[in-house]
Write a structure and sequence with these properties.
The protein has 13 helices and 15 strands. With about 400 residues, it is of the alpha/beta class. It has three domains: about 55 residues; about 100 residues, Beta-Lactamase; about 220 residues, P-loop containing nucleotide triphosphate hydrolases (Rossmann fold, 3-Layer(aba) Sandwich). The strands form two sheets. The protein has a nine-stranded mixed beta sheet, sandwiched between helices. It has a six-stranded antiparallel beta sheet with strand order 3-2-1-6-5-4, covered by helices on one side. It is elongated and about 85 Å long.
Length: about 400
Protein backbone atom coordinates (compact mmCIF):
# COMPACT_ATOMS: atom_id res chain seq x y z
CA UNK A 1 0.00 0.00 0.00
CA UNK A 2 1.42 3.39 -0.99
CA UNK A 3 2.02 6.20 1.45
CA UNK A 4 -0.92 8.06 -0.09
CA UNK A 5 -3.22 5.21 0.91
CA UNK A 6 -1.51 4.22 4.17
CA UNK A 7 -3.34 2.03 6.71
CA UNK A 8 -3.67 5.05 9.03
CA UNK A 9 -5.38 7.12 6.34
CA UNK A 10 -7.70 4.26 5.38
CA UNK A 11 -8.59 3.74 9.06
CA UNK A 12 -9.43 7.42 9.46
CA UNK A 13 -11.71 7.37 6.42
CA UNK A 14 -13.30 4.13 7.58
CA UNK A 15 -14.18 5.66 10.95
CA UNK A 16 -15.75 8.74 9.36
CA UNK A 17 -17.85 6.62 7.01
CA UNK A 18 -18.85 4.29 9.86
CA UNK A 19 -20.16 7.24 11.87
CA UNK A 20 -22.50 8.19 9.04
CA UNK A 21 -23.23 4.64 7.87
CA UNK A 22 -22.29 5.66 4.33
CA UNK A 23 -21.06 3.37 1.57
CA UNK A 24 -17.45 3.96 0.45
CA UNK A 25 -18.31 5.62 -2.88
CA UNK A 26 -15.63 7.82 -4.50
CA UNK A 27 -17.57 10.99 -3.65
CA UNK A 28 -18.01 10.07 0.01
CA UNK A 29 -14.40 8.97 0.33
CA UNK A 30 -13.26 12.28 -1.19
CA UNK A 31 -15.45 14.18 1.30
CA UNK A 32 -14.01 12.16 4.21
CA UNK A 33 -10.47 12.89 2.98
CA UNK A 34 -11.21 16.62 2.83
CA UNK A 35 -12.53 16.40 6.39
CA UNK A 36 -9.19 14.85 7.33
CA UNK A 37 -7.42 17.76 5.71
CA UNK A 38 -6.10 15.65 2.83
CA UNK A 39 -6.57 16.63 -0.79
CA UNK A 40 -5.72 13.74 -3.06
CA UNK A 41 -5.96 13.16 -6.78
CA UNK A 42 -8.49 10.91 -8.44
CA UNK A 43 -6.19 7.87 -8.54
CA UNK A 44 -5.37 8.18 -4.83
CA UNK A 45 -9.07 8.52 -3.93
CA UNK A 46 -9.85 5.42 -5.97
CA UNK A 47 -7.03 3.63 -4.14
CA UNK A 48 -8.69 4.39 -0.80
CA UNK A 49 -12.05 3.27 -2.22
CA UNK A 50 -10.51 -0.02 -3.37
CA UNK A 51 -8.84 -0.57 0.00
CA UNK A 52 -12.11 -0.01 1.84
CA UNK A 53 -14.18 -2.13 -0.49
CA UNK A 54 -11.71 -5.01 -0.15
CA UNK A 55 -12.49 -5.00 3.58
CA UNK A 56 -16.22 -4.38 3.33
CA UNK A 57 -17.23 -6.58 0.40
CA UNK A 58 -16.91 -10.37 0.09
CA UNK A 59 -13.70 -11.92 1.32
CA UNK A 60 -11.60 -8.85 0.67
CA UNK A 61 -8.08 -9.61 -0.60
CA UNK A 62 -8.95 -13.31 -0.60
CA UNK A 63 -11.77 -12.90 -3.12
CA UNK A 64 -9.64 -13.67 -6.22
CA UNK A 65 -8.33 -16.83 -4.58
CA UNK A 66 -11.82 -18.06 -3.70
CA UNK A 67 -12.98 -17.30 -7.24
CA UNK A 68 -10.26 -19.57 -8.66
CA UNK A 69 -12.07 -22.82 -9.53
CA UNK A 70 -8.94 -24.87 -8.82
CA UNK A 71 -8.60 -23.67 -5.20
CA UNK A 72 -9.96 -25.96 -2.49
CA UNK A 73 -8.51 -24.27 0.61
CA UNK A 74 -7.32 -20.78 1.53
CA UNK A 75 -5.21 -20.48 4.68
CA UNK A 76 -4.17 -17.19 6.29
CA UNK A 77 -1.43 -17.51 8.90
CA UNK A 78 -0.81 -13.77 9.18
CA UNK A 79 -1.00 -10.53 7.18
CA UNK A 80 1.88 -11.50 4.87
CA UNK A 81 1.40 -15.27 4.80
CA UNK A 82 -1.49 -16.56 2.68
CA UNK A 83 -1.51 -20.10 1.32
CA UNK A 84 -3.78 -22.00 -1.07
CA UNK A 85 -4.29 -25.61 -2.06
CA UNK A 86 -5.13 -26.30 -5.70
CA UNK A 87 -5.09 -30.07 -5.28
CA UNK A 88 -1.33 -30.44 -5.48
CA UNK A 89 -0.29 -29.37 -1.98
CA UNK A 90 0.00 -25.98 -0.32
CA UNK A 91 1.35 -23.01 -2.27
CA UNK A 92 2.26 -19.63 -0.84
CA UNK A 93 0.61 -16.70 -2.64
CA UNK A 94 1.52 -13.06 -3.12
CA UNK A 95 -1.66 -11.85 -1.41
CA UNK A 96 -0.97 -9.53 1.51
CA UNK A 97 -3.02 -7.75 4.17
CA UNK A 98 -2.11 -4.30 5.45
CA UNK A 99 -1.56 -5.61 8.97
CA UNK A 100 -2.82 -8.14 11.52
CA UNK A 101 -5.74 -5.86 12.35
CA UNK A 102 -6.98 -6.18 8.76
CA UNK A 103 -6.96 -9.98 9.05
CA UNK A 104 -8.88 -9.72 12.31
CA UNK A 105 -11.49 -7.40 10.79
CA UNK A 106 -12.03 -9.75 7.86
CA UNK A 107 -12.33 -12.77 10.15
CA UNK A 108 -14.85 -10.99 12.36
CA UNK A 109 -16.89 -9.77 9.39
CA UNK A 110 -17.05 -13.25 7.86
CA UNK A 111 -17.98 -14.77 11.22
CA UNK A 112 -20.74 -12.18 11.65
CA UNK A 113 -22.06 -13.00 8.16
CA UNK A 114 -22.35 -16.62 9.31
CA UNK A 115 -24.11 -15.59 12.52
CA UNK A 116 -21.15 -16.38 14.77
CA UNK A 117 -19.46 -14.39 17.51
CA UNK A 118 -15.72 -13.78 17.21
CA UNK A 119 -14.02 -11.53 19.75
CA UNK A 120 -11.71 -11.63 22.75
CA UNK A 121 -14.30 -13.48 24.82
CA UNK A 122 -14.90 -16.05 22.07
CA UNK A 123 -11.60 -16.16 20.12
CA UNK A 124 -12.54 -18.87 17.62
CA UNK A 125 -15.38 -19.54 15.20
CA UNK A 126 -16.36 -22.50 13.05
CA UNK A 127 -19.18 -21.77 10.63
CA UNK A 128 -20.55 -22.00 7.10
CA UNK A 129 -20.72 -18.81 5.05
CA UNK A 130 -23.83 -18.04 2.96
CA UNK A 131 -22.12 -19.30 -0.22
CA UNK A 132 -21.29 -22.63 1.45
CA UNK A 133 -17.61 -21.91 2.19
CA UNK A 134 -16.48 -23.44 5.48
CA UNK A 135 -14.92 -20.85 7.80
CA UNK A 136 -12.63 -21.42 10.77
CA UNK A 137 -10.96 -18.48 12.49
CA UNK A 138 -8.81 -18.10 15.61
CA UNK A 139 -7.81 -14.79 17.19
CA UNK A 140 -4.90 -13.91 19.50
CA UNK A 141 -3.96 -14.71 22.19
CA UNK A 142 -5.10 -18.24 21.25
CA UNK A 143 -3.40 -17.77 17.88
CA UNK A 144 0.02 -16.77 19.14
CA UNK A 145 1.47 -14.71 16.27
CA UNK A 146 -1.54 -13.31 14.38
CA UNK A 147 -5.20 -14.05 13.59
CA UNK A 148 -5.52 -17.29 11.60
CA UNK A 149 -8.17 -17.89 8.99
CA UNK A 150 -9.02 -21.14 7.19
CA UNK A 151 -11.52 -21.29 4.34
CA UNK A 152 -12.62 -24.61 2.80
CA UNK A 153 -14.24 -23.92 -0.56
CA UNK A 154 -17.41 -25.81 -1.46
CA UNK A 155 -18.06 -25.65 -5.19
CA UNK A 156 -21.66 -25.23 -6.35
CA UNK A 157 -21.35 -28.16 -8.76
CA UNK A 158 -20.41 -31.67 -7.70
CA UNK A 159 -17.75 -33.51 -9.67
CA UNK A 160 -18.76 -36.41 -11.86
CA UNK A 161 -17.06 -39.77 -11.46
CA UNK A 162 -15.56 -39.43 -14.93
CA UNK A 163 -13.90 -36.19 -13.81
CA UNK A 164 -12.47 -37.93 -10.75
CA UNK A 165 -11.03 -40.62 -13.01
CA UNK A 166 -9.51 -37.92 -15.23
CA UNK A 167 -8.06 -36.19 -12.17
CA UNK A 168 -6.47 -39.41 -10.92
CA UNK A 169 -8.67 -39.76 -7.84
CA UNK A 170 -10.07 -43.01 -9.25
CA UNK A 171 -8.04 -45.47 -11.33
CA UNK A 172 -9.13 -46.11 -14.93
CA UNK A 173 -12.42 -47.99 -14.88
CA UNK A 174 -12.80 -47.47 -11.14
CA UNK A 175 -16.06 -45.62 -11.66
CA UNK A 176 -17.67 -48.86 -12.86
CA UNK A 177 -17.08 -50.58 -9.51
CA UNK A 178 -18.57 -47.69 -7.54
CA UNK A 179 -21.56 -47.48 -9.88
CA UNK A 180 -22.24 -51.15 -9.21
CA UNK A 181 -22.13 -50.49 -5.45
CA UNK A 182 -24.68 -47.69 -5.81
CA UNK A 183 -26.93 -49.72 -8.11
CA UNK A 184 -26.88 -52.66 -5.68
CA UNK A 185 -27.95 -50.30 -2.85
CA UNK A 186 -25.06 -51.41 -0.64
CA UNK A 187 -24.49 -49.34 2.49
CA UNK A 188 -20.97 -47.95 2.76
CA UNK A 189 -18.69 -45.42 4.40
CA UNK A 190 -16.09 -43.23 2.70
CA UNK A 191 -13.06 -43.05 4.99
CA UNK A 192 -9.87 -41.02 4.94
CA UNK A 193 -7.95 -38.27 6.64
CA UNK A 194 -8.73 -34.56 6.71
CA UNK A 195 -8.65 -33.06 3.22
CA UNK A 196 -8.42 -36.43 1.48
CA UNK A 197 -11.50 -35.78 -0.66
CA UNK A 198 -14.19 -37.73 1.22
CA UNK A 199 -16.92 -35.13 0.70
CA UNK A 200 -16.01 -34.65 -2.96
CA UNK A 201 -16.24 -38.37 -3.67
CA UNK A 202 -19.47 -38.83 -1.71
CA UNK A 203 -21.12 -35.93 -3.56
CA UNK A 204 -20.16 -37.50 -6.87
CA UNK A 205 -21.51 -40.90 -5.80
CA UNK A 206 -24.82 -39.46 -4.64
CA UNK A 207 -25.26 -38.00 -8.11
CA UNK A 208 -25.54 -41.59 -9.37
CA UNK A 209 -28.52 -42.44 -7.16
CA UNK A 210 -31.69 -43.14 -9.14
CA UNK A 211 -33.68 -40.02 -9.98
CA UNK A 212 -36.81 -41.54 -8.45
CA UNK A 213 -35.12 -41.85 -5.03
CA UNK A 214 -35.29 -39.33 -2.18
CA UNK A 215 -31.92 -38.50 -0.61
CA UNK A 216 -31.93 -37.03 2.92
CA UNK A 217 -28.58 -35.63 4.06
CA UNK A 218 -27.69 -34.77 7.68
CA UNK A 219 -24.48 -32.81 8.25
CA UNK A 220 -22.72 -30.95 11.01
CA UNK A 221 -21.82 -28.32 8.42
CA UNK A 222 -23.60 -28.46 5.06
CA UNK A 223 -20.99 -29.33 2.42
CA UNK A 224 -22.52 -32.10 0.32
CA UNK A 225 -24.11 -30.78 -2.87
CA UNK A 226 -24.94 -33.80 -5.01
CA UNK A 227 -26.18 -33.36 -8.55
CA UNK A 228 -29.55 -34.98 -7.88
CA UNK A 229 -33.12 -33.69 -8.32
CA UNK A 230 -34.47 -34.83 -4.94
CA UNK A 231 -32.16 -33.95 -2.07
CA UNK A 232 -33.19 -32.72 1.39
CA UNK A 233 -30.30 -31.19 3.36
CA UNK A 234 -30.28 -30.82 7.14
CA UNK A 235 -27.60 -28.94 9.07
CA UNK A 236 -26.76 -28.98 12.77
CA UNK A 237 -26.78 -25.78 14.80
CA UNK A 238 -24.64 -24.67 17.77
CA UNK A 239 -26.24 -23.09 20.82
CA UNK A 240 -26.72 -19.32 20.90
CA UNK A 241 -24.98 -17.03 23.37
CA UNK A 242 -27.55 -17.97 26.03
CA UNK A 243 -26.77 -21.65 25.53
CA UNK A 244 -30.12 -22.45 23.90
CA UNK A 245 -31.08 -23.70 20.45
CA UNK A 246 -28.54 -26.52 20.09
CA UNK A 247 -29.38 -29.01 17.31
CA UNK A 248 -26.97 -31.94 17.15
CA UNK A 249 -26.19 -34.29 14.30
CA UNK A 250 -27.80 -37.04 16.35
CA UNK A 251 -31.01 -34.99 16.42
CA UNK A 252 -30.86 -34.59 12.65
CA UNK A 253 -30.40 -38.32 11.99
CA UNK A 254 -33.49 -39.03 14.10
CA UNK A 255 -35.50 -36.44 12.17
CA UNK A 256 -34.20 -37.70 8.82
CA UNK A 257 -35.60 -41.15 9.56
CA UNK A 258 -39.09 -39.59 9.74
CA UNK A 259 -38.73 -37.92 6.34
CA UNK A 260 -39.11 -41.07 4.21
CA UNK A 261 -35.53 -41.29 2.95
CA UNK A 262 -34.68 -43.74 0.19
CA UNK A 263 -31.04 -42.97 0.95
CA UNK A 264 -29.98 -41.75 4.38
CA UNK A 265 -26.67 -39.88 4.30
CA UNK A 266 -24.64 -38.67 7.28
CA UNK A 267 -22.05 -36.19 6.04
CA UNK A 268 -19.53 -37.16 8.71
CA UNK A 269 -20.01 -39.78 11.41
CA UNK A 270 -18.19 -38.25 14.33
CA UNK A 271 -20.12 -38.96 17.55
CA UNK A 272 -23.20 -40.56 19.13
CA UNK A 273 -25.16 -40.31 15.87
CA UNK A 274 -23.43 -43.55 14.86
CA UNK A 275 -26.03 -45.41 16.96
CA UNK A 276 -28.97 -43.94 15.03
CA UNK A 277 -27.25 -44.49 11.69
CA UNK A 278 -26.51 -48.16 12.34
CA UNK A 279 -30.00 -48.73 13.71
CA UNK A 280 -31.50 -47.14 10.59
CA UNK A 281 -29.39 -49.24 8.23
CA UNK A 282 -30.57 -52.33 10.11
CA UNK A 283 -34.26 -51.47 9.72
CA UNK A 284 -34.75 -51.38 5.98
CA UNK A 285 -32.89 -48.21 5.01
CA UNK A 286 -30.66 -49.75 2.35
CA UNK A 287 -28.04 -47.81 0.48
CA UNK A 288 -27.22 -45.44 3.32
CA UNK A 289 -23.78 -43.89 3.43
CA UNK A 290 -21.55 -41.30 5.05
CA UNK A 291 -17.96 -40.37 5.76
CA UNK A 292 -15.68 -41.10 8.69
CA UNK A 293 -12.15 -40.06 9.63
CA UNK A 294 -9.73 -43.00 9.61
CA UNK A 295 -6.11 -43.55 8.66
CA UNK A 296 -6.90 -46.78 6.81
CA UNK A 297 -9.95 -48.80 5.81
CA UNK A 298 -8.93 -51.47 8.30
CA UNK A 299 -9.15 -48.92 11.12
CA UNK A 300 -12.82 -48.10 10.50
CA UNK A 301 -14.33 -50.76 12.83
CA UNK A 302 -12.15 -49.55 15.70
CA UNK A 303 -13.06 -45.94 14.91
CA UNK A 304 -16.79 -46.75 14.94
CA UNK A 305 -16.31 -48.71 18.15
CA UNK A 306 -14.86 -45.61 19.82
CA UNK A 307 -17.74 -43.48 18.52
CA UNK A 308 -20.27 -46.06 19.65
CA UNK A 309 -19.00 -45.74 23.21
CA UNK A 310 -20.09 -42.09 23.20
CA UNK A 311 -23.62 -43.30 22.43
CA UNK A 312 -23.57 -45.92 25.19
CA UNK A 313 -23.09 -48.91 22.87
CA UNK A 314 -20.86 -51.64 24.23
CA UNK A 315 -18.39 -53.41 21.98
CA UNK A 316 -20.52 -56.46 21.31
CA UNK A 317 -23.63 -54.44 20.47
CA UNK A 318 -21.71 -52.12 18.15
CA UNK A 319 -20.10 -54.95 16.20
CA UNK A 320 -23.38 -56.84 15.99
CA UNK A 321 -25.13 -53.85 14.42
CA UNK A 322 -22.15 -52.97 12.26
CA UNK A 323 -21.99 -56.44 10.73
CA UNK A 324 -25.57 -56.20 9.52
CA UNK A 325 -25.60 -52.50 8.62
CA UNK A 326 -22.55 -51.81 6.43
CA UNK A 327 -21.22 -53.67 3.42
CA UNK A 328 -18.00 -51.89 2.56
CA UNK A 329 -15.56 -49.04 3.11
CA UNK A 330 -14.11 -46.86 0.35
CA UNK A 331 -10.83 -45.35 1.54
CA UNK A 332 -9.07 -42.25 0.23
CA UNK A 333 -5.54 -41.14 0.92
CA UNK A 334 -3.75 -37.90 0.18
CA UNK A 335 -0.11 -38.46 -0.70
CA UNK A 336 2.80 -36.12 -0.01
CA UNK A 337 2.38 -34.41 -3.38
CA UNK A 338 -1.20 -33.47 -2.42
CA UNK A 339 -2.89 -35.88 -4.84
CA UNK A 340 -6.06 -37.55 -3.55
CA UNK A 341 -6.66 -41.19 -4.46
CA UNK A 342 -9.12 -43.98 -3.70
CA UNK A 343 -6.48 -46.42 -2.53
CA UNK A 344 -8.65 -49.34 -1.48
CA UNK A 345 -12.15 -50.73 -1.19
CA UNK A 346 -12.76 -53.09 1.72
CA UNK A 347 -15.68 -55.39 2.54
CA UNK A 348 -16.79 -56.01 6.11
CA UNK A 349 -16.97 -59.50 7.60
CA UNK A 350 -17.12 -61.07 11.06
CA UNK A 351 -14.29 -63.10 12.55
CA UNK A 352 -14.55 -66.15 14.80
CA UNK A 353 -15.04 -63.92 17.86
CA UNK A 354 -18.00 -62.14 16.30
CA UNK A 355 -16.08 -58.90 15.79
CA UNK A 356 -16.19 -57.04 12.49
CA UNK A 357 -13.02 -56.65 10.50
CA UNK A 358 -12.39 -55.46 6.98
CA UNK A 359 -10.84 -57.31 4.06
CA UNK A 360 -9.47 -55.61 0.94
CA UNK A 361 -11.60 -56.30 -2.14
CA UNK A 362 -9.96 -53.87 -4.57
CA UNK A 363 -6.79 -51.82 -4.30
CA UNK A 364 -5.35 -49.03 -6.40
CA UNK A 365 -3.60 -49.94 -9.61
CA UNK A 366 -2.30 -47.69 -12.36
CA UNK A 367 -4.37 -49.60 -14.93
CA UNK A 368 -7.42 -49.99 -12.72
CA UNK A 369 -8.48 -51.53 -9.42
CA UNK A 370 -6.65 -54.76 -8.64
CA UNK A 371 -8.79 -57.52 -7.17
CA UNK A 372 -7.89 -58.67 -3.67
CA UNK A 373 -9.00 -61.33 -1.19
CA UNK A 374 -12.42 -59.80 -0.51
CA UNK A 375 -13.40 -59.47 -4.18
CA UNK A 376 -15.57 -62.60 -4.23
CA UNK A 377 -17.64 -61.29 -1.30
CA UNK A 378 -18.02 -57.88 -2.94
CA UNK A 379 -19.13 -59.51 -6.19
CA UNK A 380 -21.74 -61.59 -4.34
CA UNK A 381 -23.11 -58.52 -2.53
CA UNK A 382 -23.43 -56.61 -5.80
CA UNK A 383 -25.05 -59.57 -7.58
CA UNK A 384 -27.66 -59.86 -4.81
CA UNK A 385 -28.56 -56.27 -5.55
CA UNK A 386 -28.80 -56.98 -9.27
CA UNK A 387 -25.55 -55.39 -10.43
CA UNK A 388 -22.14 -56.59 -11.51
CA UNK A 389 -18.90 -54.96 -10.24
Amino acid sequence: MSTLTSPELVDAVRLRLAESGAEPTPARVAAALRAEGRLLGDSAVLGVVAALRSELVGAGPLEPLLADQSVTDVLVNGPDEVWVDRGGGLERTTVRFADAAAVRRLAQRLAAAAGRRLDDARPWADARLPDGTRLHAVLPPVAVDAPCLSLRVVRPRAFRLAELVAAGTLPPGGDGLLRAVLDARLSFLVSGGTGSGKTTLLSALLGLVGRHERVVVAEDSAELRPDHPHVVRLEARPPNQEGAGLVTLRDLVRQALRMRPDRLVVGEVRGPEVAELLAALNTGHEGGCGTVHANAAGDVPARLEALGMTAGLDRAALHSQLAAALALVVHLRRDRSGRRRVTEVHVLERDADGLVRTAPAAVWGDEGFVRAAGWARLARLCERGGSTP
